[in-house]
UniProtKB/TrEMBL annotation:
GO biological process, one term: SCF complex assembly
Chain segments carrying region Disordered: 309-339
Keyword NAD: no
Keyword annotations of the record: Repeat, Ubl conjugation pathway
InterPro entries: ARM-like, ARM-type_fold, CAND1/CAND2
Compositionally biased intervals (Acidic residues): 312-339
Keyword Repeat among record annotations: yes
Domain of life according to the entry: Eukaryota
Protein name listed in UniProt: Cullin-associated NEDD8-dissociated protein 1
Pfam families: TPR_CAND1 (PF25782)
């Protein structure tokens, strides 16, 4: 579009009718987004002026569109014009009318995001930083200060390392705001200093840290100022990482002292102290070593900190079934909207998690001291805190798996051995959580159990029976969500895969119904997971073919019908299709001698799935499973068709398909060689010769 037409748009943007202004601004936005758009110096000036003017339009729709124009405009005008725009926007922010301040702030942030070159970022920082610092220090309102700090934080985060010569004066100005009377200003100042910190020299970083520590040593300081300074210490360590290490000697004892000596109602002070200590553990893993013991003891003390509530319930009772619902609700009887002690417990749990993640060498100690405490805290009354307790325990399990991979559990001081001793208590406590009404709690409980079985396979052999009611309820209860069903099914699958089949034989009747019902669930992820569990159930029912350890015959047809309903349905998710194919192949390979009547109608469906490109690979592997069955399944109704299809697949470009096809053909030839016709063998040999020649050409001898 010619510049004269752009001029026409600019004229309409200043009209009296807001609809015309809106349409004209929209047209301008379209033009600015075109790659071919270019503007001379005169047009650049007009464009920037009119867009900045539109930011103050009485119509919110027009001013909103004007903000959107800024991003492409920054890319179309020269750097001096962008600096001019930021200066004008900053002036609007600092000195403009109240009703236009928010728009100016949003616009300024929009411009900063689009700055990508080092030269422009330096020019903007040189121009903008002093103005923003001025807005923070020169007696402006709290709202203006917060906007300035917000924008300055963005600028420093993106371009903080551009002009190091100004770091000292910016740091000094920002540190003074930590003592502001307005909480919002203090909070924004913490974020702003944290954005500046990674760019600071070691000397300036030391100055900032020592200044904050000095303020923390003033015992008579106001508690809200103290809380801000503790937050600042934590933010600095998160921001600069290992560079904070030299200052831990002064910071750690201070924070531990504040945490233990805070007044009963000052929960936030304890929370912020624990959060800072958590940060030290994660960000300064080497330098924090001398203080780990003290931090661990502190976190263990406060993970159960609940001064306003005493839970007299004992977990050691053997009569867990009696009055279950009453027990479930008893922990929730106490409620107090003003009680903030849960923040302390949550911060303690996260601090423990940080210790576990960063100090694998302390795992044995964690099992001796932290594990019993965490298991006891599974009954935490605040659900969000309980989730953090679960996550901390899961972190302990994962670290145990990582550290002890490939090791035995003979050594009585090893983490695996110590964990094994805790399994009965863990299961007992988790069982209680599975009886809770909260879906979130039950999902978390199954997550703990899953991780436990991953780390210690076969650890639930003596405990599984007590978990069956919880699994049944999760799968059968009408209030259960899809997420809960998936977690319950995933746990069941993992535990079946890692334990002896005989462990589950007493509970097959109780579990098979809910599992088969889940196969018919409307949500595809539940169905897919249920089909995977069903595959494990099949293996459990008939673990070997020489002897019958359980009468599996009553379960064959129900399992077959449930899977067939999914296998025959083409209108469903790919994951379900693949799981149904794999599961049916297991059923046929395991129970084929009891499905002679059903096979002629089922096997052609599997052959049909080989013809579909999406399910082809899974179907090919399914026939390998069937062919390898000791039962020598009767494939006469489909054998020729299967061999023909497989032979054709050897010509496909898909390497994974060719490999699977070769494996399946090999199994078929070994098991059904005498039933395969000579013409089929000739075709197979021809295709194999081609494959071999191709391989020789690619990898010459």
């Amino acid at each position: 579009m010619a510049n004269t037409n752009i001029t026409g748009i600019l004229e309409k943007m200043t009209g009296k009718d807001k609809d015309y202004r809106y349409m004209a601004t929209s047209d301008l936005l379209s033009e600015l987004n075109k790659e071919s758009f270019k503007a001379d110096q005169d047009l650049e000036s007009k464009l920037t002026n009119i867009v900045l003017q539109q930011l103050e339009d009485a119509s919110g729709d027009v001013s909103g569109l004007a903000v959107k124009c800024l991003a492409p405009l920054v890319k179309k005008v020269n750097e001096e014009r962008v600096v001019e725009m930021t200066d004008k926007l900053c002036d609007k922010l600092l000195n403009g009318k109240d009703q236009h301040r928010d728009t100016a702030s949003i616009a300024l942030k929009a411009v900063i995001v689009e700055v990508t070159t080092a030269s422009l970022s330096e020019k903007i920082l040189v121009s903008l930083a002093p103005q923003l610092i001025n807005g923070v220090t020169n007696g402006k309102s709290a709202e203006i200060k917060c906007e300035c700090l917000d924008i300055l934080s963005d600028v420093l985060h993106r371009f903080g390392n551009v002009i190091t010569k100004d770091h000292a004066y910016m740091l000094t100005a920002l540190l003074t705001q930590l003592s502001s009377t307005q909480a919002s200003v203090r909070k924004k100042s913490v974020s702003c200093i944290a954005s500046l910190a990674p760019c600071l020299s070691d000397d300036l970083l030391a100055k900032a840290t020592l200044e904050v520590i000095k303020l923390l040593k003033i015992k008579r300081a106001k508690s809200d100022i103290t809380r801000t300074n503790i937050q600042m210490i934590g933010a600095l360590s998160r921001s600069v990482g290992y560079r904070f290490g030299p200052h831990l000697a002064e910071a750690v004892p201070l924070l531990i002292n504040y945490c233990t000596s805070a007044s009963e109602n000052d929960e936030e002070l304890r929370e912020y102290s624990l959060q800072a200590l958590e940060s030290f553990m994660l960000r300064c893993p080497r330098d924090i070593s001398p203080y780990c013991e003290g931090i661990l003891n502190l976190a263990l003390e406060y993970v159960s900190y609940d001064p306003n509530f005493t839970d007299s319930m004992e977990e050691d009772t053997d009569d867990e079934v009696q009055d279950e619902e009453e027990d479930d609700e008893s922990a929730d009887e106490y409620t107090d909207d003003e009680d903030a002690s849960w923040k302390v417990r949550r911060a303690s749990a996260k601090c423990l998690s940080a210790i576990i993640a960063s100090r694998p060498q302390m795992l044995s100690k964690m099992y001796q001291e932290a594990c019993p405490k965490l298991v006891d805290r599974f009954r935490e009354r605040e659900e969000n805190v309980k989730m953090d307790i679960f996550n901390t325990f899961i972190e302990l399990l994962r670290q145990t798996g990582n550290v002890t991979k490939g090791q035995g559990d003979i050594d009585e001081s090893s983490p695996r051995w110590l964990l094994k001793q805790e399994v009965p208590k863990v299961v007992k406590s988790i069982n209680r959580q599975l009886r809770e009404k909260s879906i979130k709690t039950k999902v978390g409980a199954f997550s703990v159990l899953k991780e436990l079985v991953v780390v210690l396979p076969d650890c639930l052999a003596d405990q599984f029976g007590s978990l069956v009611p919880g699994i049944e309820k999760a799968l059968n209860d009408k209030s259960s969500t899809s997420n809960l069903k998936i977690e319950a099914l995933a746990f069941t699958r993992i535990v079946m895969a890692s334990h002896s089949p005989s462990v589950f034989h007493p509970y097959i009747q109780a579990l098979s119904g809910p599992i088969l019902s889940a196969i018919g669930d409307r949500y595809y992820k539940v169905t897919a997971e249920a089909l995977r569990v069903c595959g494990e159930l099949v293996r459990v029912l008939r673990p070997n073919f020489e002897e019958r350890t359980i009468d599996f015959r009553p379960y064959i047809i129900p399992i077959y019908k449930a899977i067939l309903a999914r296998l025959a349905n083409q209108d469903q998710d790919q994951e379900v299709k693949e799981c149904a194919i794999s599961c049916m192949s297991l059923v046929i390979a395991t129970f084929g001698d009891g499905l002679q009547r059903e096979l002629p109608s089922c096997l052609p469906i599997l052959v049909d799935r080989m013809g579909n490109e999406i399910t082809r690979l899974t179907a090919v592997k399914a026939f390998a499973v069937i062919a390898n069955s000791p039962l020598r399944i009767d494939l006469s109704c489909v054998l020729d068709h299967v061999v023909s299809e497989l032979t054709a697949f050897l010509r496909k470009a898909n390497r994974a398909l060719r490999q699977a096809t070769l494996g399946t053909l090999n199994s078929l030839v070994v098991t059904y060689g005498s039933q395969i016709g000579s013409s089929s063998y000739e075709t197979i040999l021809a295709e194999l010769s081609t494959l071999i020649m191709t391989a020789i050409c690619i990898w010459p001898l």
